[in-house]
Specification:
The protein contains ten helices and nine strands. It has helices at residues 9-24, 30-36, 41-53, 70-82, 86-100, 142-149, 153-161, 176-189, 231-234, 238-251, and strands spanning 28-29, 57-60, 65-68, 103-110, 113-120, 135-137, 192-195, 202-210, 216-225. The strands form two sheets. A six-stranded antiparallel sheet has the order 6-5-4-9-8-7, sandwiched between helices. A hairpin with a 6-residue loop joins strand 7 and strand 8 (202-210). The longest helix has 16 residues, at 9-24. The chain is globular, with a radius of gyration of 19 Å.
Length: 259
């Protein structure tokens, strides 16, 4: 079962249920939802019915499964256009992917975690876990560490408190002191690396996207597999990565980006 978190009444519980259904990444039956739900059977069923009635979820009567609904999709698309860096950054992301021939990730930081808002895959020879709309840890991803390193001190301390430090691979940093030491190095170099810390066989080079006043508004990474490049080899993309991140930051200067 999922761990219960603070919820703001019925609305909070309904949002938890939406998150739970979304985590499956496929149409899912009530029994599977119930196995992960932190709420009693009757409450879980009532929440699902309400969400279905509001078209936030869709129920397939043929196979008895729930999936994300059309109304939620419309809201997500509206959020992507108004609260996401993706529309502004997209032309630059496309150019960088074409220039490098590798996968480019665009991310923002939300409650100490990485939210992927765009991805352009220039090759089908490998795949990464990162997908648009997915959340990943900040402490063990290139984009996450790039953003953490340049957060204002108070925001950084809050974000560090929100890290789980789970060991995904043998290379994952699980010591907060070691992470803070690496963040110091990232500030000095201006770039971060993912050394197979989140996925074995996947490495990346990442840079923060900063507003003209130095506020972190996102991060950009070039990700590849260890079958294609070494970490040292990724440094060949450094200049193009930093240039692209700077251009996105400049383009977003007058954008009303949510704090």
């Amino acid at each position: 079962m999922t761990t219960a978190v603070k919820s703001d009444g019925t609305v909070g519980k309904a949002l938890e249920m939406l998150d739970l259904v979304a985590e499956f990444g496929r149409p899912v039956r009530f029994t599977d939802i119930l196995a992960r739900s932190s709420h009693p059977k009757a409450t879980s069923y009532r929440l699902l019915q309400t969400l279905t009635n509001q078209h936030m979820l869709e129920f397939n009567e043929v196979d008895g499964t729930y999936s994300l609904g059309g109304r939620l999709m419309r809201l997500a698309h509206a959020a992507w256009k108004t609260a996401s860096l993706a529309p502004i950054a997209r032309p630059f992301v496309e150019q960088l992917a074409a220039q490098t021939g590798e996968t480019v990730h665009l991310a923002q930081i939300e409650q100490g975690q990485v939210l992927f808002v765009d991805k352009l895959q220039a090759t089908d020879r490998f795949e990464t876990l990162a997908q648009v709309g997915k959340v990943a840890p900040a402490y063990c991803t290139g984009v996450g560490k790039a953003m953490l390193a340049f957060l204002a001190p108070k925001r950084l301390q809050l974000a560090l408190q929100q890290q789980a430090y789970f060991q995904y691979t043998p290379a994952t940093l699980t010591d907060p002191a070691a992470l803070e030491a690496e963040l110091d190095q990232i500030r000095a170099k201006g770039i971060a690396h993912d050394r197979e810390e989140h996925e074995e066989g996947i490495i990346s080079i990442a840079a923060p996207i900063l507003s003209t006043n130095g506020r972190v508004i996102g991060a950009l990474s070039i990700a590849t597999s260890t079958n294609r490049h070494t970490l040292e080899g990724l440094d060949a993309f450094r200049a193009a990565l930093l240039d692209t991140a700077e251009k996105i930051g400049a383009e977003a200067t007058n954008w009303q980006f949510p704090a």
